[in-house]
Amino acid sequence: MALQASFLPSALSAHKEGKTVAKDSVFLGAPLSDHLKSDFSPLLLRTKRANVSIGVRAQTTATAAPSVNRSAPEGKKTLRKGNVVITGASSGLGLATAKALAETGKWNVIMACRDFLKAEKAAKSAGMPKDNYSIMHLDLASLDSVRQFVSNLKRSGLPLDVLVCNAAVYQPTASEPSYTADGFEMSVGVNHLGHFLLARLLLDELKESDHPSPRLIIVGSITGNTNTLAGNVPPKANLGDMRGLAAGLNDTSGSTMIDGGKFDGAKAYKDSKVCNMLMMQEFHRRYHEETGITFASLYPGCIATTGLFREHIPLFRLLFPPFQKYITKGFVSEEDAGKRLAQVVSDPSLTKSGVYWSWNKNSASFENQLSQEASDAGKARKVWELSEKLVGLA
Ligand code: LMG
Ligand code: NDP
Ligand code: PMR
């Protein structure tokens, strides 16, 4: 409630200025998704819609950002910012990417976060230009929250140009599984199933985008790829015959692990990354030709300092960064990793679909090879179909 009171004035003043709808999303995101104050939201939403056509189109940028007014005279095009949703933008890679994109002035970054205040603080202390981002509530550990987020975004009237599925949890030290609101093992539930539903529900929005290069990006990782040294550190990713996924990914109906095995948090994370990389390719096969949307995944490098390792033992957190810096040399800073993901979001040379991007020692991007399992089209189809059932799409 406090949130609401404090965000209302700025939301309304943003309207008056006819400047941007970004503030509205700040306002919209938290209260609506928290199921608060639904009584007066329709009024706000109507106001907002009316403003989108005026406010957003009035914005100009200096470079080849998405064009709205395509009939404007050459060199004087009226351009609008691209709208990019980044999940888990309250820390680590997501925050660094949000910052990198917001600073270009060409993007309105919608930070889709489970902890609204944390995100607001993070954005402020990162010094993100406030006209170029907004925050909306999204808890990927709840399918209801995912649906609510999609509905809020649609009702905001903001066109969606790029969706980045970045959020993740990693529970390497958990001896017992934990569960999402819908009863799925947490790592696969958040990292894969929550994002799968989100991406499926937002596909129509991406299709309608008039941006020159709409994209759906799903963050992958080297640790899910057993064709690498890192992917061979035990426990290794392996989806097996997916009997655990088929049975609902919990102890009551079968197993918390996709392959039906005993719970292992580190393996669950790596399995979830395999699902992320498989889903990117399945989206590509099903929708790229028809929609022109670019579907891509990436390994941004080892960002050994992020919150991802918060649940690991202190000794690991101490040694992991120097290990990656000086021994594997796979280390990359949050800032540089953010620039890499920002490239995949907006670089005109990275429009190829179905690609898993990585970066070499000189920080040049290249198309990387996925492991056999992470590029298995049969497995991709099966993950897709089983996941559809679990998230209520089939
Ligand atoms: C699993 O264990 C747990 O079973 C699971 O529950 C879960 O927690 C999971 O991923 C999380 O871990 C992993 C365990 C097994 O690994 C460890 O516990 C080792 C932790 C090491 C972490 C990195 C820190 C290393 C510290 C080195 C010191 C750095 C200091 C730097 C200072 C620089 C100053 C200039 O892991 C293993 O069993 C390891 C075996 C991995 C096999 C990988 C495949 C072949 C490896 C070939 C070796 C190549 C050599 C590379 C150099 C390595 C140097 C350490
Ligand atoms: P962080 O922990 O810093 O960021 C993860 C983000 O996900 C946080 O903002 C977190 O929110 C959010 N999140 C977690 N659970 C939920 C949820 N239920 N709903 C919504 N958001 C949630 O880790 P990284 O930045 O390292 O990870 C980002 C991505 O990069 C992940 O996909 C990870 O797999 C990938 N990656 C990371 C590598 C690395 O070395 N760090 C290497 C390869 C890939 P909150 O701030 O509230 O906790
Ligand atoms: Mg790994 C080139 C070698 C390399 C790279 C790039 C990574 C990345 N790791 C490498 C090697 C090794 N790691 C080796 C030789 C070991 C054994 C000492 C090792 C161990 C290790 C552990 C215990 N590494 C880890 C862990 C984790 O808990 C991290 C993990 O698996 O998270 C799922 C991790 C990682 N190593 C990486 C990267 C990028 C990670 C974590 C990030 C991720 O996949 O999201």
CATH-wise, what's the superfamily? NAD(P)-binding Rossmann-like Domain
Largest sheet: number of strands, sense, barrel closure: 8 strands, mixed
Low-confidence stretches: 1-78
The bound ligands are: 1,2-distearoyl-monogalactosyl-diglyceride, NADPH dihydro-nicotinamide-adenine-dinucleotide phosphate, Protochlorophyllide
CATH fold-type name: Rossmann fold
For the biggest β-sheet, the strand order reads 5-4-3-6-7-8-9-10
Q: What percentage of residues falls in helices of 4 or more residues?
A: 40-55%
> Overall pLDDT, averaged?
84
**Annotation field: number of helices:** 12
Q: Can you tell me the number of structural domains?
A: 1
Task: Give the second-level CATH assignment, the architecture.
Answer: 3-Layer(aba) Sandwich
Please state roughly what percent of the residues sit in beta strands, choosing from under 5%, 5-15%, 15-25%, 25-35%, 35-45% or over 45%.
5-15%
Q: How many β-strand runs?
A: 10
| Rg on CA atoms, Å | 20 Å
What general outline do the C-alpha atoms trace? globular
The CATH class: Alpha Beta
Classify the secondary structure makeup into a structural class: alpha/beta
Distance between the termini: 36 Å
Care to describe what's here?
- The radius of gyration is 20 Å and the shape is globular.
- The protein has a single domain (82-391), classed as Rossmann fold (3-Layer(aba) Sandwich), CATH 3.40.50.720.
- By secondary structure, the chain is of the alpha/beta class.
- The strands form two sheets. It has an eight-stranded mixed β-sheet with strand order 5-4-3-6-7-8-9-10, with helices on both faces. Strands 1-2 form a two-stranded antiparallel ribbon.
- It has helices at 2-17, 22-33, 41-56, 92-104, 116-125, 143-156, 186-208, 243-246, 265-291, 314-328, 334-346, 377-390; strands at residues 67-69, 78-79, 82-87, 107-113, 133-137, 162-165, 215-219, 294-298, 355-359, 365-367.
- The model is unreliable at 1-78 (pLDDT under 50).
- It is built from twelve helices and ten strands.
- Helix 1 packs antiparallel against helix 2, helix 2 packs antiparallel against helix 6 (143-156) and helix 6 runs parallel beside helix 7 (186-208).
- The site of 1,2-distearoyl-monogalactosyl-diglyceride (LMG) has 15 residues, from helix 10.
- NADPH dihydro-nicotinamide-adenine-dinucleotide phosphate is lined by residues 87-88, 90-94, 113-115, 118, 138-141, 166-169, 190, 219, 221, 299-300, 302-304, 306-308.
